[in-house]
């Protein structure tokens, strides 16, 4: 593994730990707002939008933003934020019932199955990476792992 790959691997690990913290944070936010998931998601995303907007402004990211650039993007790129909001709502509702570990094991399983499908078909402009027997075995082992966590 190269030095830069190792740095990115560590960053990915830290990112994963931050994702694990998001669910309980969102669940507590929702509980504190009488389980009003719409208000909770709005407040959470407003915080994120304000922070990233300020950082983008300070870094000069908005200099190259034009209406032409925005209108030439495929419509499906706007689904990322929608999917994020849906995931947050799901986490707010599921974590109190499942716990963080089981919730995230199931989420990661969904991530991996989705990723295998997206890779296989080259979805969203990805390079096609065909599904294989070894990937199927790996995914099956992940599903077995979910079963073990459920019983733990």
TrEMBL record:
It holds the Pfam family DMT_YdcZ. InterPro entries: YdcZ. The keyword Membrane applies. Keywords: Membrane, Transmembrane, Transmembrane helix. GO terms for cellular component: plasma membrane. The chain crosses the membrane at residues 37-58, 70-90, 96-118, 130-150. This is Transporter family-2 protein. It comes from Yoonia rosea.
